[in-house]
Amino acid sequence: MSYDRSTLDAVVQHYFDGLYDGDADKLAAIFHPTADLRWVEGGELKILTLPEWLALVRTRGSARAEGKARDDFVVTVDRSDEATAFVKVRCRLPPRYFTDYLVAMKLADGWQIVSKAYRYDMRG
After folding, report:
1. Which of 5, 6, 23, 91 has the fewest CB atoms within 10 Å, i.e. the most exposed one?
2. Taking a C-beta distance cutoff of 8 angstroms, is the pair 3, 14 a contact?
3. Which DSSP state fits 7?
4. What structural domains does the chain harbor?
5. Which residues of the chain are modeled with pLDDT < 70?
6. What is the helix (H) or strand (E) element at residue 91, kind and residue range?
């Protein structure tokens, strides 16, 4: 199945949908294969490759299947030109509440997320 990557808005919406649905294939379609995910844990930088992250997504339950309320939104979009953007989003996958920093680029076949850095809070 292919996904609309013609606009940055479409890619961000697919990102939110993929996270909420726990759909690794939908997420894979909007991330560049060389993308990685970075966060700080215990004062140390942690890095996951895209295949490692997608494998984790495939093994966990989805917020939709668990009946959890959906809460995701774009905080800001910063475009440096017509092919490069920084998107800050917030999303909730209880008990984790994420702030994600996505770098997206418009490539020959459409927009893709090329990098993700994030942080999260744990809430009861």
Report:
1. 6
2. yes
3. S
4. 8-122 (3.10.450.50)
5. 1-2, 124
6. strand 84-93
